[in-house]
What we know:
By secondary structure, the protein is of the alpha+beta class. The chain has helices at residues 3-10, 14-33, 44-56, 107-116, 140-149, 187-194, 199-207, and strands spanning 37-42, 63-66, 75-79, 92-98, 124-129, 133-139, 152-153, 156-157, 159-163, 175-182, 211-213, 216-217, 230-233, 237-247, 253-260.
Amino acid sequence: MDKRTVLDRLGADGEERLLLSRVWDKWQECSRKNLPAVTVFLSPAQQLAARRMLSAAGVQAGYVFYGGYPGAQRCQLHFLPDWQEEPEQDAIRAIRCTWYREEEVNHRDLLGSLMGLGLTREVIGDILVGEHQADVLVSASVADFLLTGWDSAGHARLHCAPLALEDVIVPEEKTKLIRDTVASLRLDSVVSSAFSISRGRAAEAIAAGRVQLNWQECTKCDRTVGEGDVISLRGLGKCTVESVGGQTRKGRLSISIKRYV
């Protein structure tokens, strides 16, 4: 199946079609030359789209998503030749930024300052903010530039130094476990439970395109949700469906949700 047929079959258009076309070209480059080929950093939604495209093309192996550390959200897609088993470690570099204790710097400040330097989002991986420091994953091609030219974020002065990938610190995410019962596993019902809003407000948010299911916008209130699904509501955060239990005596379903706070 050729590239155009696959992209048409997936219904890809606009930015997604351009992205998937580039992913296809990297796969073909690796296949033709039997050499490693690497994409830019991809968001979780873009990774999902790439997986669907590769599956539609019959590609089941020979590639791996890698973001510099286990569990990274933003990852490069590495196509591996038959003589290689692991992704190219030097395709990603880590930088540790520190600032004075009395200054406050958040994820938005750091990303904004990087974009202000003329970088695009596709060369920036995860930004892991800790106390008075942040570990930032970037494409190797921009690391040296940042080490010499990135000196501020928000109102804070930054000190940047190279960091080995194995020394990256992943902050512990703050979560709370919600145990509840729902009438059904419809998206509007689960969103209502997860974010403590009425079902009507949940339905309005879904219809307005403010809800993502597994990193893709979903405007259907009756979409069925299952264990492991990730739901985000713009302005209120993100949650994961941890487990779905049996029915209660009143015919409702017990559910456990991990909400990120």
